[in-house]
Write a structure and sequence with these properties.
The complex is a heterodimer of chains A (340) and B (363).
Chain A (H helix, E strand, L loop, with lengths): L2 H17 L2 H6 L6 H10 L15 H14 L5 H14 L2 H12 L4 E4 L27 E10 L6 E5 L3 E5 L3 E5 L9 E16 L3 H31 L1 E2 L2 E2 L4 H22 L4 H26 L10 H13 L4 H13 L1
Parallel strand pairs in A: 1-3
Antiparallel strand pairs in A: 2-6, 3-4, 4-6, 5-6, 7-8
Chain B lengths: L6 H17 L9 H16 L18 H13 L8 H14 L2 H12 L5 E4 L15 E5 L2 E12 L6 E7 L9 E7 L5 E6 L8 E12 L3 E2 L5 H13 L6 H17 L6 H20 L9 H24 L4 H12 L7 H12 L5
Parallel strand pairs in B: 1-4
Antiparallel strand pairs in B: 2-3, 3-7, 4-5, 5-8, 6-7
Classes of the chains: A alpha+beta (340), B alpha+beta (363).
Keywords (chain A): FAD, Flavoprotein, Oxidoreductase
Protein name (chain A): Acyl-CoA dehydrogenase
Organism (chain A): Lentzea flava
Chain lengths: 340, 363
Amino acid sequence: MTPEQLALRDAVRSLLGKHSDVRAAIETPDGYDEDLWARLCDIGVLPIPERYGGSGAGIAETALALEELGRTLTPSPLLSSAIAAQALLASGNEEACTRLLPRIANGAVAALVWPWDTAEVTATPVLDHPEITTAAAASESLDGTARHVLYGDLAEILLVSDGVSLFEVDDDVTREHTPTMDQTRRLATIQLSGASGTRLGPWSSGVRDIALAALAAEQVGAAARALELTVEYTKTRVQFGRPIGSFQALKHRMADLHVLVETAQSAALAATDEVSAAVAKVYCSEAFCKVAAEMIQLHGGIAITWEHDAHLYFKRAHGSAQLFGSPADHLDRLAKLVRA
Amino acid sequence: MDLDLDAATLEFQAEVRSWLAGHVRPLSSMDTAAGFEEHRSWERLLASERLSVVSWPEAFGGRNASLLQWLIFEEEYHASGAPGRVSQNGIFLLAPTLFAHGTDEQRARILPPMAGGDEVWAQAWSEPEAGSDLASLRSTAVRCEGGWLLRGQKTWSSRAAFADRAFGLFRTSAEGRHRGLTYLMFDLRADGVTVRPINQLDGEPGFAEIFLDDVFVPDRDVIGAVGDGWRVAMSTAGNERGLSLRSPGRFVAAAGRLVELYRKNPDPALRDRVVDAWIGAQAYRLHTFGSLANPPAGPAASVTKVFWSELDLALHETALDLLGEVAPGWRDGWLFSLAGPIYAGTNEIQRNVIAERILGLPR
């Protein structure tokens, strides 16, 4: 980590330590703390070059911030806006970048509808993704339904990809907040019926890899914190006259979890291309689910309560595992990529 | 092993299947006030056909059914999609304790309203500082004229938010950890009782804390001898950990639903896990039928507890991976399965029991 990256991470961690309140955030109508989001944008966590009004942060810096947001489970549009910004940059459309990126850098929420599991860009002029049904013309009339779109109902800027091109869409769109079990993640269903889309440029499958890597960073942060909380608890919970963390059966399990979190972090950091991003998505999804499940078991009864945060980590773990394609989907892709 | 059923059992099976087919309907969650009463009504309906406690003597509302017939009943019950049993803590945990350690007077007084759904019971064992280390519990019962006064705090008490009565362990003397505990029953609506519902991870008050402030319990509500509560409690623990609370029928039915789910959403990457879960349910079923003559009790119940709780988790996780999202039909079962390796003695404690008391490994 460079000194600048370390400073950024510390700034985000300190901000979240002071101002993040996940319970309060999920009770708000939009499900996130707008003031906190504005402060994050001020720190410059979005991957937007300076010439487009950004801080000049890259994806690596955004990943650091996401790792911190993952630790505290803070609901935030960062993942959504960051991916949308990267899709815009990849489209090479100077006019759109000049017009939209400064707004995103300033905190305007951006959302992207994209084909999660398309391994490569196809020339088919349809939205050929299972999430997007009844897709038709790819040109400028967009049809289809997309589920589990990050911040899709709140976004000021809505981008849509059919896996070939990137479009900007602003009308004829039905957006509906569709809550899932993970209340800390805002997801929406978007219906496009003959929506007029402005073709901005080509879609780059590199955006998928960036999204997977960014999500993996967030998963690692959450998994690391879930383990820390568990270790802290087992040091203070006394049964049979000693802290339960002193029992070898529990020690070994937490030691194994530590190995898992460390290797997951390595996988997330190394996620820079198609294969390594898919590896990170699979590995970090499974690692976080494992740590969250163990967090519940090692806490015992208290973890079954609504008051305790263990279920928030657990639900985030399982929601994140499904986001942008399940581990099984990406294993399938990897099998083909490795065989090729 | 001969799994052919005799004529009487086949007839019983047909009757149960037909009755359930005609009466099962979806109910609201039993962890809500309204849903709890719906479940109580369901218990009354079952009892009206003597189907709520088939293995009990007829005098208490049962049919004197054999253990085999009870297993068959459970299979039919779960296969039909019938509601969860709001009276399970009473009929599966307290009742076996009363059969083993209670008096005739207690059985005659307590079992019929339990069988009929008129008295729903909660278990009051754990305390904030006494979970896995149950014997360190601090709630006390102090002698008074004609009975005992209960003081202290119990927690993680399933159903207690809406139940009528509770049973639990209390310290009646300071000598020793295990000695000096006594098994008592008390009324959750008695003077001095405060019940504070606890919302579970699904947001509903599936369990509660119970605060006891000089709650009077008459002598007739002590089970077994004063000071002998630990031994009495461990006989109930065997029932909770063993097959009575979690009969194979439940898992066989869930595994069947999982296979159906796979047929609709085939995913070769998950095929092995679907089949493993199905095999696990079948293995548990066969293990249970095989041990009918000598049902798991004591330390042996720890073996089944580890097995069914981990099977339940694997089964639900596989279903979720097949679905890719949390479908309503699987959501509650999945969240509930998370608690399985924790309640009735954590699986860590069960493994200690297996290691020390079955394998004879040093403490």
